[in-house]
Amino acid sequence: MRLADDNNAIASKATHPNTLRPTPGARISVAPMMAWTTREQRYFMRQISRSALLYTEMVTTGALIHGDRTRFLAYHADEHPIALQLGGSDPAAMAECAVMAETHGYDEVNINVGCPSDRVQNGTFGACLMGEPQKVADCVAAMKARVSIPVTVKTRIGIDNQDSYEFLHAFTRAVATAGADALIVHARKAWLSGLSPKENREVPPLDYARVHTLKRDFPALPMSINGGIVDLDTAAVQLEHVDGVMIGREAYKNPYVMAEVDRRFFDAHAAVPARGDIVANMRGFIADHLAAGGALKDVTRHMLGLYHGQPGGRAWRRVLSEQGHKKDADLNVLDAALARVEPTEAVA
């Protein structure tokens, strides 16, 4: 059953330059993932798709305000379009960090209302904030008052036993009325206790239809869907119902799944990069990383799945895994791994 909403009021905000403004690249995006969507991973992903929107790992407001903000906010210029995901629940702190994001050139700042881990809950942010929609709305409003870049919210369809459509609708209305520029919905509810973060990505059933209904009820609010999407054909079907698709673990496990994103969803004339060219494009970045004192594994651990399902793919992964962690590992390891895949993929 569809519910009445305040969408006319929300739609009227679309004329304001600071509201309901989707981020470039949001049609297809790669989900923020702790310990995975690092600066090294994002640069690698940018060699595969030039247009998809990339997200940082979640960064807490405390880390930015009291920690090494330069380190947390650093990114390569080639990573655009790029969004900073924030974890926090204090409107003033969230607004302060949103200003940092804009000052550092981020294209979007996103509020994490989807992570169910105990650590995140103890910090009173993440998925538990779904139970406090006004607090999320206050964060959105405070951030919107301070920045001109889009402020978005990533959430679930529910938490624990608060998983009715009415609950999701009320949450969406609150954040949309506060001025959120877009909503990204992981189409599973989250169990705040009893399931691990990994289980929360797999056990609660997907409910794409609920997200589609939500989009129909809030047509003026840009909305992306996330959860269980593993190929571009499925993404194309989802785009018949919503404005954007966020791909998560599959883009990490099998990164070449993103190779046709630009051509299919952004520019029909865009080139599809060959795997060997992607590797070649990474060499300069890796050399700079090593020269700055970084380890080869910091980069190559994100590249393990590039030849997923290809002849020599297991050997590629094995060489990088077994040799990339060594203290003196350098570009010779990358060359040795590349020599194990199909000759047609090798580069000089």
Automatic annotation (TrEMBL):
Residues 30-338 form the DUS-like FMN-binding domain. Residues 1-24 are annotated as: Disordered. Pfam families: Dus. It catalyses: 5,6-dihydrouridine(20a) in tRNA + NAD(+) = uridine(20a) in tRNA + NADH + H(+); 5,6-dihydrouridine(20) in tRNA + NADP(+) = uridine(20) in tRNA + NADPH + H(+); 5,6-dihydrouridine(20a) in tRNA + NADP(+) = uridine(20a) in tRNA + NADPH + H(+); 5,6-dihydrouridine(20) in tRNA + NAD(+) = uridine(20) in tRNA + NADH + H(+). The record marks 112, 198, 201, 314, 317 as: Interacts with tRNA. Keywords: Flavoprotein, FMN, Hydrolase, NADP, Nucleotide-binding, Oxidoreductase, RNA-binding, tRNA processing, tRNA-binding. GO terms for molecular function: flavin adenine dinucleotide binding; FMN binding; hydrolase activity; tRNA binding; tRNA-dihydrouridine20 synthase activity; tRNA-dihydrouridine20a synthase activity. The active site is at residue 115. Its EC number is 1.3.1.91. The keyword Membrane does not apply. The keyword Magnesium does not apply. Its cofactor is FMN. PROSITE patterns: UPF0034 (PS01136). InterPro entries: Aldolase_TIM (IPR013785), DUS-like_FMN-bd (IPR035587), DUS_fam (IPR001269), DusA (IPR004653), tRNA_hU_synthase_CS (IPR018517). FMN binds at residues 32-34, 85, 154, 186, 226-228, 248-249. NCBIfam families: PRK11815.1, yjbN. Catalyzes the synthesis of 5,6-dihydrouridine (D), a modified base found in the D-loop of most tRNAs, via the reduction of the C5-C6 double bond in target uridines. Specifically modifies U20 and U20a in tRNAs. HAMAP family: DusA_subfam. Belongs to the Dus family. DusA subfamily. This is tRNA-dihydrouridine(20/20a) synthase.
